[in-house]
Design goal:
Blueprint (H helix, E strand, L loop, with lengths): L5 E3 L2 E3 L1 H26 L7 E14 L3 E15 L5 E10 L5 E6 L2
Antiparallel strand pairs: 1-2, 3-4, 4-5, 5-6
Amino acid sequence: MASSDQTLSNETISAEDLKDAQDDSLSKASYYAKEVLKKSLKDPESFDLVEAKKYFVNQKSLDKGDFTYIQVKITYRATNSFGGTIQNTQCFNFDKKMLLIETFECN
């Protein structure tokens, strides 16, 4: 198929609509990740976003085959239990249904 459109269940989706849907999924995942992170902090009001990156990850594994998920990587500053300011980076992985499947400290 030479067209930039994809057909699913008798519906044609333009490449632009597909990109918009992907961008929307990335934005939603980023928002959800920030909210989960804030709720996990001792002082949520101290949350200061340094950088947020979001992207699709394609992974091949023996048990899952080809598996695509969204990863959001957030670098932030916040106040810890002792009143000091810390900087940390946390990763959040979301499946295609936008369910949080994993979170971990990352670099």
